[in-house]
Amino acid sequence: YLMDTTGKTLAASNWDKQDSFVGRNFSFRPYFSEAMAGRLGRFFGLGTTSAKRGYFFAAAVRNGEKIIGVLVVKVDLDHTESLWGNTPEQLLVTDHNGVVILT
């Protein structure tokens, strides 16, 4: 989804769904502040709209050097976990703080 510099969502892949992100503000999320500071934002959390676990990646959208918004991709961990559950290997994923987010 795409947010403006205030954190308001302008466009989202779920724009036509009941739980659309469009119009919602996500400026409180750490990935938003990181992206607005020009860094890659990453965050594991429970979706406040969808109530689904996800890993979020965010990056600044720029016009030249000026940051004009933030683009976010959310990876659905329930789906990923179910796919990985069909393999014989045992898998464990942690975030950069060592917190287990997927097994």
Q: What are its keywords?
A:
mainly beta; 2 helices; globular
In short:
The protein has helices at 30-36, 77-84, and strands at 2-3, 9-11, 41-46, 53-63, 66-76, 93-94, 100-102.
Give an overview of the whole structure.
This protein is 15% helix and 37% strand. With 103 residues, it is mainly beta. The strands form two sheets. The chain has a five-stranded antiparallel β-sheet with strand order 2-1-5-4-3. The protein has a two-stranded antiparallel ribbon with strand order 6-7. The longest helix is centred in the C-terminal third of the chain and has 8 residues, at 77-84. The mean pLDDT is 89.
What structural category characterises the helix and strand content?
mainly beta
Q: What overall form do the CA principal axes indicate?
A: globular
Measured on Cα atoms, how large is the radius of gyration?
Answer: 15 Å
Low-confidence region ranges? none
N/C terminus separation: 27 Å
